[in-house]
Amino acid sequence: MHRNPQRTCVQCGSKTDKRSLLRIAGKAGAGWKPDPEGGRPGRGFYLCRKSECVEGFVRRIRTPKGAARWKMGTSGAALGEQISAWWAGAVNG
Ligand SMILES: [Zn+2]
């Protein structure tokens, strides 16, 4: 029996079942989007669905240095807003 695929959270570095993480999908230089269903094409990276990781990551990509890690440029702030909006819905709804 196969184990569920594991992925590493880019914020805290812990390894968890891929399906329990939030996927961020897209491509360096072309933009990234939150992908909670995990179905978007392109590359992806993952975050724990925990406020420390989600909020910490959003703060990080709002800075030019943090956004540069994924070549987000100024779109890091826009992605941060999308993630924050998704997270507010995930927590409250
Ligand atoms: Zn994490």
**Number of domains as seen in the coordinates:** 1
- Main sheet makeup: 3 strands, antiparallel
Task: Encode the helix/strand succession as letters.
Answer: EEEEEHHH
CATH topology: Hypothetical Cytosolic Protein, Chain: A
Radius of gyration: 13 Å
CATH class descriptor name: Alpha Beta
Percent helix among the residues? 25-40%
Per CATH, the superfamily is YlxR-like
In the predicted model, the low-confidence regions spanning at least 5 consecutive residues are none
Q: Strands of the largest sheet, in order across it?
A: 4-3-5
Shape verdict: globular
Strand-pairing-aware structural class:
alpha+beta
Gap from first CA to last CA: 34 Å
CATH architecture: 2-Layer Sandwich
Strand content: 25-35%
Bound molecules: zinc ion
Instruction: Supply the number of helical segments.
Output: 3
Please count the beta strands (DSSP E, at least 2 residues each). Answer: 5
pLDDT average, as an integer?
91
Provide key terms for this protein.
93 residues, alpha+beta, Hypothetical Cytosolic Protein, Chain: A, two-stranded antiparallel ribbon, globular, binds zinc ion
Structure summary:
This protein is an alpha+beta fold. It has helices at residues 51-61, 64-68, 75-92; strands at residues 6-8, 15-17, 21-27, 31-35, 43-48.
Provide the fold topology:
Blueprint: E1 6-8, E2 15-17, E3 21-27, E4 31-35, E5 43-48, H1 51-61, H2 64-68, H3 75-92
Antiparallel strand pairs: 1-2, 3-4, 3-5
